Amino acid sequence: MPKAQIPVLKENKPKRRASRRIIAILLLLFVAILVILFFRSPVSQVTEIQFTGGTFSSREQLLQASGLKAGTQYFGVSPSKVENQLLQIKSIQKAVVDKHFPGKINVTIQEYPTVAYELGAEGSLDAILANGTKVSVNSSGIAVEKPILTKWSASDPNKVELCKVLGTIPNELTSDISEIIPSPTASFPDRIKLYTRSRFIVITAISLLSDKVEYLNQVIETAQPGTITMLEADTYTPFQPSGGEDADQNATTHGN
């Protein structure tokens, strides 16, 4: 009789695919738990907010405008969004937000430069910035070489243009100007009158000031006090010597 063949029993192989899947799921759960714990921990939160370069805005104003607050999610802070929100403050020309992990945010503020000052209704001193914005100042923030704007209407568009022009002129060319008042005519609606610390009276126009200011300084450095007209033509007329006191008075009382 032929021998009966006994079938060979296959060995049970471990189910590798199933075990790998279980391991992957466990790893994902572990990572998810770590992420949850991380975002609930102080390490993921804003812990320090620092502003530098701001003079005219308080820390409270900057925090309110920026939307920054200690305890918020560090990774939820968008630098570009914060920068745009800070530009809503009219005195701010530029803002740069730098994030430093963990939890630190530095904000560098660049404000429009002060180009002049103006006396407020109650005698307080306000700074006029290069974009025409008026802001209150304290005694520590006053630049004495800047001119005073007087007799200007708050709604006068020439006032804003004057501030823009002053912002483009180097300080050393305007440091002698003590006061600027509007003096419009039909031919020159943006005509202005300037008074200098060296006792000159200057008549020019806002649209001409940046081109004429170098000539102004040349005359001031070489001539006796007088009236300088810088419009279509440049002229200089010294004060009459015989009018000594009257001439000095005319140069300092700033009459129209």
TrEMBL record:
InterPro entries: DivIB, FtsQ_DivIB, POTRA, POTRA_FtsQ_type. PROSITE patterns: POTRA. Keywords: Cell cycle, Cell division, Cell membrane, Membrane, Transmembrane, Transmembrane helix. It holds the Pfam family POTRA_1. Its main location: membrane. The chain crosses the membrane at residues 21-39. The keyword ATP-binding does not apply. The keyword Metal-binding does not apply. Residues 236-256 are annotated as: Disordered. It is a single-pass type II membrane protein. GO terms for cellular component: cell division site; plasma membrane. It is found in: Cell membrane; Membrane. Residues 44-112 form the POTRA domain. GO terms for biological process: FtsZ-dependent cytokinesis. HAMAP family: DivIB (MF_00912). Belongs to the FtsQ/DivIB family. DivIB subfamily. PANTHER family: CELL DIVISION PROTEIN DIVIB, CELL DIVISION PROTEIN FTSQ. Cell division protein that may be involved in stabilizing or promoting the assembly of the division complex. This is Cell division protein DivIB. It comes from Paenibacillus dendrobii.
